[in-house]
């Protein structure tokens, strides 16, 4: 429970702050899941605006 604050993130603009409450497989795969999500979200910018 002391690490709960580490799994929140804030989006720019008026979208707000998001915090994971539960992940179906726990936090052991969160790094890979996060990377896949970021790749999916920013796929148009990778190589052009992002490295």
TrEMBL record:
Domain of life of the native organism: Eukaryota
Matches recorded under PANTHER family: REVERSE TRANSCRIPTASE DOMAIN-CONTAINING PROTEIN (PTHR24559:SF444), TRANSPOSON TY3-I GAG-POL POLYPROTEIN (PTHR24559)
Protein name: PREDICTED: retrotransposon unclassified
UniProt xrefs under InterPro entries: DNA/RNA_pol_sf, Rev_trsase/Diguanyl_cyclase, RNA-dir_DNA_polymerase
